[in-house]
Hints:
Blueprint: H1 13-39, H2 46-82, H3 97-102, H4 110-116
Amino acid sequence: MAVATKIRSKKHAAYERLLRSKRAELLAHLQEHREEVLAERVPDDNYALATRTLMEDLAVGAIQRERALLGELEHALGRLEEGVFGICEACGVTIPERRLKALPWARFCLECAERRQPHWKN
Length: 122
Ligand SMILES: [Zn+2]
C-alpha cells in the first residue's frame, strides 16, 4: 500500500505545534466555561441576579473572543495543510517571520491588515 507523503516546510513545523497547542488550550477552556454555566444555580434575589447577569456578559464576551480565535487557529492549520501558510491572503507576499512569530495565525501581511482594519492591532 502506497503511503502518501506530504512535503511540509520544516520551518513551519514550530508554528504547527504552536497552533495545535493553542487550539487544545482554547478547546479545554471553552469546555470549562460550558461546565461552569451548567453548574450555576438560579439566583434567589435581585442583587445575585444582577451580579450573575454581569458575570454572564463578561463570560459570553470572553467565550466569543475565544471562539473567534479558535476559528483563526483552525483557518491557519488549514492553510498549513494546503501549503499556503505564511502567505498574505490579500496580496500574496510572504508574511515576514517576525510578524508570524508575534501572530502565528496572521492571514495578512502588515500592510494589508492595516488597510483592512486600521484600528485592529492584529
Ligand atoms: Zn498583503
